Amino acid sequence: MSQDIRNLEPLPLWNHFADLNAVPRPSKKEERVIAFMKQFGENLGLQTLVDEVGNVIIKKPATLGMENRKPIVLQSHLDMVHQKNNDTVFDFDTQGIEMYVDGDWVRANGTTLGADNGIGVATIMAILASNEIQHPAIEALFTIDEETGMTGAMGLKGGLLEGEILLNLDTEEDDEIDIGCAGGVDVTAHAEYDEEDTPDGSVAYNITVKGLKGGHSGMDIHKGLGNANKIMNRLLFNGFDSFGLQISTINGGSLRNAIPRESVAEVIIAKVYDEAFVFDMQQIVNEIKTELATMEPNLEIIFEKKDSLPAKVMPPVAQYYLVRALYTAHNGVYRMSADFEDLVETSNNIAKVTVGNGKLQVQCLTRSSVESSKFDLANALRSAFELMGCEVEFSGSYPGWTPNPNSSILKVLDELYEKQNGKKANVVACHAGLECGILGTNYPDMEMISFGPTIRGAHSPEERVSISSVQKYWNFVLEILKNIPVK
């Protein structure tokens, strides 16, 4: 890791971020970072506890003269999305993130950076460790598993926290103050099929879709980015209809909350169609690249003939229904909000498609700020996949966070932002899934607000955080702590 990171201002924040990024912390595997954070709190001599699901809570009394202010909760999540480029050799389970400075940005070498939500975590660590920062009584809440189910927030019991105001440090535009977010539900379709022997007189190809930008399946869903699973299905649909292409395996995408950047399929066709297949598919490739040229200039679609044939393939009838169901299944923006300008209300990400060994599975993440609309789209997806014979499950549903434009803490942040920057902040609701809505279930009287520094490319290897924005955000945090209302 570059020492340059530790020399950035503000020094306490960046040094804690570097310490944190040395600890592997994938979602669902947070044991090491939980232990790291628990040790951090105990080393400071602060009251530290780990709840029954793994959330870490560290309590710090108010500084002198701030005892009459409302107690606050500073909240960020410990886990990070793990994505890497195909040609990057990296083990997220054992290695720390390799960071470097690139102008005004901090990036990682071929992987996600973990600024989402590591910058928030590091901010809270710097405040807890400081003997100079003025602040009211603080409960630092570090949740787990935000990225793949929000089970940490869901498992946090009422009565553990006494704070009256929650500051969530998990948004990605430094000129925005968030007061609402979307909820989500995981939609999973799966089925089994009887494989058949690969016919004689066949040739095999690997089809690879790669070079897409990827990104956050909530914050970036409206940008018109390519989805590797939809692109791959388009190729397979045309190959099947025109040349009787048969699928052996598909492996596309990875995480539900990341727009899929890559997909690989192993297929066969009859040898007699070989030349025509290559010519025809190249025309389709050119069409796709032309359509996506502006947003996805680095898209690559590669057809590579194999020396050997797969032993088994999907039978034509099963394949007929699969490619049509995937074509039918909605991906991207489903509805824009009628109440907030330019806000996506409801969307879906076809995140992961796997086929092989007689089994198929499609994983989606459906988001919406309107609960009924969320399940309307989820049921549309369910219908498409049930018509092909799949079993469809809904899981991990979590509520959105209803905006409260009249909250007292919003007034504080709004005024401070304008005073510091000479202009108003954008008060918004976002299409990402923040934990505020879930936490509010057991803490309905707690005022909540969310803000953060500028982060780009979250949930992809292009993730980066602006250094100057972190400085701006840090100064904003310090002013907020000094201006928390009295009890």
UniProtKB/TrEMBL annotation:
The keyword Metal-binding applies. The keyword Aminoacyl-tRNA synthetase does not apply. GO terms for molecular function: metal ion binding; metallodipeptidase activity. Residues 208-293 form the Peptidase M20 dimerisation domain. CDD domains: M20_pepD. Its EC number is 3.4.13.18. Pfam families: M20_dimer, Peptidase_M20. GO terms for cellular component: cytosol. InterPro entries: Peptidase_M20 (IPR002933), Peptidase_M20_dimer (IPR011650), Peptidase_M20C (IPR001160). GO terms for biological process: proteolysis. Keywords: Cobalt, Hydrolase, Metal-binding, Metalloprotease, Protease, Zinc. It is an enzyme of class 3 (hydrolase). Its cofactor is Zn(2+); Co(2+). It comes from the Bacteria. It catalyses: Hydrolysis of dipeptides, preferentially hydrophobic dipeptides including prolyl amino acids. PANTHER family: CYTOSOL NON-SPECIFIC DIPEPTIDASE. NCBIfam families: aa-his-dipept. Belongs to the peptidase M20C family. This is Cytosol non-specific dipeptidase. It comes from Paenimyroides marinum.
